[in-house]
Design goal:
By secondary structure, this protein is mainly alpha-helical. The protein has helices at about 20-25, 35-40, 45-55, 60-80, 90-115, 120-125, 130, 135-140, 145-165, 185-205, 225-250, 270-275, 285-295, 295-315, 320-340, 350, 355-370, 375-380, 390-415, 450-465, 475-500, 500-510; strands at about 170, 180-185, 280, 285, 420-425, 425, 430, 440. It starts with 17 loop residues before the first helix and ends in a 10-residue tail after the last helix.
């Protein structure tokens, strides 16, 4: 007598549908329920996990599907919390980082001011490291009220623009709890309004257009370079206090939507450094998203323009080719950044990193005071000028880097969104992984695994070449950037190797070079 064929049942006792059997058999992501398909595409679930979940729970309604996704994602998030993954060397490493980075930034500014070589500028540190690295070195109390007022006014001005200017609402990526946050994007308009306001201040400064009633951009050097360094100190104190306020508010569950203490380890110094929450919000106002893009990045350009204006005054109505190149390159970089503002939402900083001292200080201090070293160097050394012909060559190098950077990012974006099925006029080549995702190896992505990094480093080098070769300090940015990107590539390679397994091995065989084609 033939044995009765067993039927697969869900925990509720219902027969597994033929539709789910068919999905499992074909291993086809396109036939998954829409909510699970989205989680797989955003890499919140593996394809295998999605099939298992679809098999366990029949699809009854969209409301049931959404709650199912949130439940599974929340369970995954909860299981991750049980294991603490220390970053930056744990509590000790984070503590060292918090004190060393402000000192390094201060050291570079004072060394350029004193026109010291790297070796000479390190001598005071070697003679008395305790005194040099002490709190009083860069956190002195002789800060004029002007230093604080100028930085706080700037920060408040950018907050105001974020609130009053029109913009677009975009959804971010899926969070561990299965939700997607809304983001208000008006960065490009804020950048344009800031540039217009700065231009009005320049006209008032040079021609008295508004009876000299507007802010004087060169006042950041009112008492020489010391005025600028006082603003640096004020920004440091602002960032440290802001990070402390964020940490404290998290402990009192002050942020909307239950976004408090998701990332706490219980170690206070480490949690202060890394941050207690990933998405601190007051209503719709996302503090991390705002600080990530507005105050620091736009101030980077405004500082450059202020230094160029000061040079214009001191050189009797002209600026050097070198200063013009640096200001234009970095102005254009930020212009492109805000033109593609929606792409910020998929960055690691926004998706994954908590918002603590690390991002807070990096956004508000490190970016505007270390990325401007080329402009600062050229202001201190107005005799440095590359001239017209070398300037044209550097200009061409910069836009070669920009083309690689922008074209490679567009190729990746268009491939992921399905906007086009071709790359460089040919059908896009890719590897379909067991997870159901695809690894592109066409166009720039067929030459190296991170061609966008190559474009970024090429542009960074072009920022520094106008400064000549008289000092190593203007080259800090490309050197630092290269080390950062190599470390990031290694970390990404390890992550992808773990996630994709043999598919990643196959991909690396097809694309053997990490960043620079045929070199590295």
């Amino acid at each position: 007598m033939a044995r009765k064929k067993a039927t697969s049942k869900t925990p509720s006792g219902k027969r597994r549908s033929s539709r789910i059997k068919d999905i499992d058999a074909k291993n086809d992501i396109s036939k998954l329920p829409s909510d699970l398909k989205k989680l797989v595409e955003d890499e919140s679930l593996t394809l295998k996990q999605a099939f298992a979940l679809a098999a366990e729970t029949p699809k009854k309604s969209s409301r049931r599907s959404k709650s199912r996704s949130k439940k599974v994602a929340t369970k995954a998030s909860s299981s991750e919390k049980k294991t603490v993954h220390w970053e930056f060397g744990g509590p000790i490493g984070s503590w060292i980082t918090m004190w060393s980075l402000p000192a390094v930034n201060y050291w570079m500014l004072t060394s350029i001011t004193n026109k010291s070589s790297v070796q000479d500028s390190l001598q005071p540190l070697m003679d008395n490291p305790v005194e040099w690295l002490g709190f009083g070195t860069f956190f002195t109390t002789d800060l004029a009220q002007y230093s604080f007022s100028i930085y706080i006014t700037w920060f408040a001005f950018q907050v105001l623009l974020h609130f009053i200017l029109p913009g677009a609402n975009e959804k971010g990526t899926v969070l561990p709890n299965g939700t997607r946050l809304n983001y208000y994007l008006n960065g490009f308009r804020a950048y344009m309004v800031t540039l217009i306001a700065f231009s009005a201040c320049v006209m008032d400064k040079l021609h008295g257009t508004f009876n000299h009633q507007l802010f004087d951009p060169t006042s950041i050097f009112e008492d020489g370079v010391e005025s600028y360094i006082k603003i640096f100190r004020a920004a440091n104190i602002f960032a440290w206090v802001f990070a402390l306020v964020l940490y404290t508010l998290c402990q009192f569950n002050a942020f909307d939507g239950g976004l408090n203490n998701q990332r706490c380890t219980g170690c206070v110094p480490y949690d202060y450094f890394m941050g207690s929450t990933t998405n601190p919000r007051v209503g719709w106002f996302d503090l991390k998203f705002f600080c990530e893009s507005r105050p620091g990045l736009i101030l980077w350009v405004m500082f450059n323009f202020s230094m160029a204006l000061k040079q214009y005054e001191e050189l009797d109505g002209r600026i050097t080719y070198s200063m013009g190149l640096v200001c234009f390159f970095q102005f254009f970089y930020i212009l492109d950044y805000f033109w593609q503002e929606q792409s910020i939402l998929t960055t690691m900083d926004i998706k994954h990193d908590p918002f603590g001292w690390m991002l807070c200080w990096g956004d508000l201090v490190w970016v505007p005071f270390s990325y401007t070293l080329q402009g600062f160097y050229l202001y201190i050394n107005p005799d440095v000028d590359v001239g017209l012909i070398p300037g044209v060559c550097i200009f061409a190098l910069h836009f070669l880097g920009y083309r690689i950077f922008r074209e490679s990012n567009n190729q990746k974006h268009n491939f992921r969104t399905g906007a086009t099925k071709t790359t460089w006029g040919e059908k896009s080549k890719f590897i379909k992984t067991e997870r159901g995702t695809k690894l592109l190896h066409s166009g720039w992505w067929g030459l190296s695994r991170h061609p966008n990094y190559l474009g970024d480093v090429t542009m960074a080098l072009a920022y520094s070449l106008p400064c000549g070769f008289g000092s190593l300090f203007p080259y800090f940015y490309p050197i630092y950037f290269w080390i950062l990107l190599v470390h990031r590539e290694r970390r990404d390679n390890h992550h992808c190797s773990t996630k994709y397994g043999k598919d990643w091995v196959n991909y690396c065989e097809k694309v053997p070079y990490r960043i620079i084609p045929y070199v590295y």
